[in-house]
Amino acid sequence: MQAQYFCSGTLTPDEFRHYGLATEIYTHFTSPIRRYADVMVHRLLHAAVDRDAGYASELTNKVAMAEQSDVLNHRHRMAQQAGRASVELYTSLFFKGKTVDEEGYVTQVLQNGFSVLIPSYGVEGIVYTTSKGDTPALEYDKAAHSLVSSDASVSIGLFQHVRVVLQVDDSPVSANVGSMRRKLLLQLVEPHVPGLSLTETELSAIRATKPTQRSESQIIELVTTHPEQVQSI
């Protein structure tokens, strides 16, 4: 769920509530030089506090205001996607052809994996504990909100220190994007979990593998052509 702009006359008061701030009615604005949404809020507030102020007719037209709100929401989403696309583009360019062995911290525990933040690079990715049709190497413990190995010798929990190998996965993310888009692949090294963690032999093999080289122009064209398919890494 994401907060959206809307015209108050088009929705019931029960829908005015801001779920994040737990307020019954809410709007926000900053300097009007930043966003057009802020310009609109400034104009509406001016018209509300000064009855003699001149203002355009659309400020009292619910249909026009609702349409403008829809445009603002759409542009806001497009701006967010552009930002995520930019992060993915330059992250992929930086790590292309590299195999990085780094320390990180668990920031989220999922039923089929866990998110790892790598402070030295400021990137975050998911280590998956199972793939389709495979038996998971770690089982989710709902009570402890952690992932536990079958023999209970290893557990993965929030803020735990881990070691991972990070590289750009050379397998296609989606067949719908011309088999060019790639994503970051995180693989666990430590703690050692049988069937999940990489062995030293596997690490050596990964480092010795020469990745498929793709030009920067190909990556840029891919991300700019398909921004709707870009996700935060």
Give the strand content: 15-25%
Termini gap: 19 Å
Largest sheet: 5 strands, antiparallel
Average the pLDDT over all residues and give the rounded result: 81
**Total DSSP helices:** 4
The general outline is: elongated
Rg from C-alpha positions?
24 Å
Which stretches of 5+ consecutive residues score pLDDT under 50? Answer: 174-179
Strand order of the largest sheet: 3-2-1-7-8
**In which range does the helix fraction lie?**
25-40%
Assembly category = single chain
Number of strands: 8
Structural class: alpha+beta
**Series of H and E elements:** HHEEEEEEEEHH
Summarize the SSE layout with pairings.
Layout: H1 36-49, H2 62-95, E1 99-110, E2 113-118, E3 123-128, E4 138-141, E5 146-149, E6 155-156, E7 161-168, E8 184-190, H3 200-208, H4 216-225
Antiparallel strand pairs: 1-2, 1-7, 2-3, 4-5, 5-6, 7-8
Helix pairs in contact: 2-4
Molecular structure report:
- By secondary structure, the chain is of the alpha+beta class.
- It contains four helices and eight strands.
- The chain has a five-stranded antiparallel β-sheet with strand order 3-2-1-7-8. Strands 4-5-6 form a three-stranded antiparallel β-sheet, with no helix packed on it.
- A hairpin with a 4-residue loop joins strand 2 (113-118) and strand 3.
- Helix 2 runs antiparallel to helix 4.
- The longest helix has 34 residues, at 62-95.
- The protein is elongated, with a radius of gyration of 24 Å.
- The two termini are 19 Å apart.
